[in-house]
Amino acid sequence: MTTVAAYAAPSAKAPLERTTIERREVGEFDVLIDIKFAGICHSDIHQAREGWGEAIFPMVPGHEIAGVVEAVGSGVTKFAVGDHVGVGCLVDSCRECENCKAGLEQYCLKGGVGTYNALDKNGEPTYGGYAEKIVVDENYTVRIPDGLALDVAAPLLCAGITTYSPLKHWNAGPGKKVAILGMGGLGHMGVKIANALGAEVTVLSQSLRKKEDGLKLGASHYYATSDEATFKELRGTFDIILSTVSAPLNLDAYLSLLKTDGAFVNVGAPEEPVALNLFSVIAGRKTLAGSGIGGIPETQEMLDFCAEHNLGSEIELISASQINEAYERVLASDVRYRFVIDTATI
């Protein structure tokens, strides 16, 4: 076992504090990663504050991990010491079910092992990226291409893949009109990726406060959802609406913005249930869908795509001592667009 410094929530809703945790010894197929940067995802806050249900404490959040390989096990073939690598939301899965075999480990039928707030195959709690180092099986580690700096690459391991996967699945591309609902950590990557895929991109945001940013990042149009005229003007417009919002929405109003056969895809996960009039999907043969992260092959594909198109996350680099303040600022939507922890400060 190796002892490393980390930032952990000792209990639900408690401030995160500096502590030490144990990492397992490097096994035959393991990679020891010296973590350089860790993104702060809204889901870290949901879990540290038990917004999504009972959680495991102490909790070391962080599933947007970018670092450098420090050591490899004797059986490792995919990585070598010095490689730039990333770890996202998954560190293991059953590897045997039809989804795992299809490269859809995120939908493992036996339940994947989360990077944190989960139990590994030995029943030990997993600890995430707000730490100096992490040991991960090579099959759940991805390569960060040379063209991507590690600090702006870290958020791609969740925010990037969570938007890339549904945009690819619902065929965003030339001739498609895509709306990104919410211009935050996920939304700003959705704008960049949908634009790079060739779609015509519209941002739907509560206000026009970030309009200039949205247009700069690749949107052609930007509308305020607080303006009732938006829903009249855009009725029947979009092939895909990708919702990155973590608050309950008036789904019927948003479904009215879809074309026939359009899809409203949720990647934001509100803590409470939402209401729906089924005629909103029946009229127009519309789809109300959800999407998680991507599997390991698709996560690698996304990183390669982002490197090719020079798409990093827009970040604000912080020290570990600013994590609790950053959580409050995320909740207040006061970040453009992703906080990233410089783990050298842990």
Task: Describe it.
With 346 residues, this protein is an alpha/beta fold. The chain is built from eleven helices and 17 strands. Strands 3, 4, 5, 8, 9, 16 and 17 form a seven-stranded mixed sheet that branches. It has a six-stranded parallel sheet with strand order 12-11-10-13-14-15, covered by helices on one side. The protein has a two-stranded antiparallel sheet with strand order 1-2. The longest helix is centred in the C-terminal third of the chain and has 13 residues, at 296-308. The radius of gyration is 20 Å and the shape is globular. 48% of the residues are buried.
Question: What are the key terms here?
Answer:
346 residues; alpha/beta; 6-stranded parallel beta sheet; 11 helices
Task: Please write out the topology.
Blueprint: E1 2-8, E2 17-23, E3 30-39, H1 42-48, E4 65-72, E5 84-87, E6 90-92, H2 98-101, E7 113-114, E8 133-137, E9 142-143, H3 150-153, H4 159-169, E10 177-181, H5 185-196, E11 200-205, H6 211-217, E12 221-224, H7 228-233, E13 238-243, H8 251-255, E14 258-266, H9 279-282, E15 287-290, H10 296-308, E16 315-318, H11 323-331, E17 338-342
Helix pairs in contact: 4-5, 4-10
Could you give the distance between the termini?
A: 19 Å
Order of helix and strand elements from N to C terminus: EEEHEEEHEEEHHEHEHEHEHEHEHEHE
Structural class: alpha/beta
Poorly predicted sequence stretches spanning 5 or more consecutive residues: none
Helix-residue proportion: 10-25%
